[in-house]
Amino acid sequence: MTGREAAKILLTGKDGIVSLNLFYAGKQVLGPTSLLQQTGEAHKRLRRLIAEPLSVDGLKKYFQFINNLAIETLDQWPGRTVLVHEEASTFTLKVIGNMIMSLEPTGEEQEKFRANFKKHCKDTSEGEDDKLTDTQLKDNILTLLVAGHDTTTAALTWVIKFLEENPAALERLREEHMEIQGSRKNGSSLTWSEINNMPYTTKVINETLRIATILPWFSRKAALDFEIDGCKIKKGWSINLDVVSIHHDPAVFPDPLKFDPSRFDEPLKPFSFLGFGSGPRMCPGINLAKLEILVFIHHLVCRYKWSPLEKDDSVQPTVVRMPRNKYPIIVKPL
Ligand code: HEM
């Protein structure tokens, strides 16, 4: 299905008409208590528990870790071919892995996040009913890892690619970051409050997600018979929402393939931008994803200019759309 009306019906899932349609392998890997397999009240409750450690306040304490990691990653970039997709993948895996899975069990920060996540999910709720079992905890840690890693990797890679291809946008974005850097006292580094004041970069991220449409379709299963735009849908059918056609609709986004972050200067029509989805299944990792990208882009544009080593616009035909060639570049100090 396509169109904003279909998006509204399918994503708000009004009157319980749809549930998420997870493919078989996803069900097996993520486990029966994953957020992606829950519906109705159980889904709402789990979302509430998961939302807390991923909220703006919950993420504040991981800012320094993410900031240092971005600086360390970028320290390694000069003098060699950089496959941006691979670097972004390692960066985002380290962030989420260190936060929730404790890849390095001795790390103090990781232990703190695990304790915190467990605390939020197990102890802070009102009653027995609101406590998660260890299976639920395991399934949902894995869910966050799977849902949050490739998506953020792809988004960061596309942002870097689109900025290079659109020099006017890069110049304006760099001005935003140079101004932030210039207003700092000597020697001090990026701060949490600076991250929360990067309006142009936020529009660049949105425009990137619109053009690239990292998740090109959202899948739902009909829980009842219903109709969209005169099209009769039967209970049990799978329905895919084609997000690319919504993001590239010339009636809403004139000249849709043009990279133009100013499209986000004004509020958009409802259900026309679905980079992080909408409704009860809207991405709970939106703050973390934006934080990682803003921090990384800040250090990148304040230190380097970069050029691609080949021209290739082809897209990897996977569930998450990425540049097929991993976007090889070389960087030079500004
Ligand atoms: C730029 C990066 C990201 C993009 C573009 C993105 C996009 C999306 C979209 C479009 C959906 C809704 C899919 C649907 O309605 O069928 C979604 C759901 C979800 N996302 Fe993200 N996401 C990103 C990062 C993250 C991160 C960092 C996490 C976790 C740490 C995460 C966890 C999830 C989860 C668990 C869901 C399912 C929510 C539910 O079913 O209630 N995502 N994401």
Automatic annotation (TrEMBL):
Where is the signal peptide, in residue numbers? Answer: none
- Reported cofactor(s): heme
Say yes or no: keyword Membrane present: yes
Q: Name one GO cellular component term.
A: membrane
GO molecular function: any one?
A: metal ion binding
The protein's topology relative to the membrane is: Single-pass membrane protein
Question: Where in the cell?
Answer: Membrane
Entries under Pfam families matching the protein = p450
Cited InterPro entries: Cyt_P450, Cyt_P450_CS, Cyt_P450_E_grp-I, Cyt_P450_sf
What are the entry keywords? Heme, Iron, Membrane, Metal-binding, Monooxygenase, Oxidoreductase, Transmembrane, Transmembrane helix
Report the superkingdom from the record. Answer: Eukaryota
UniProt record similarity statement:
Belongs to the cytochrome P450 family.
Name the record gives this protein: Uncharacterized protein
- Biological classification of the source: Eukaryota, Viridiplantae, Streptophyta, Embryophyta, Tracheophyta
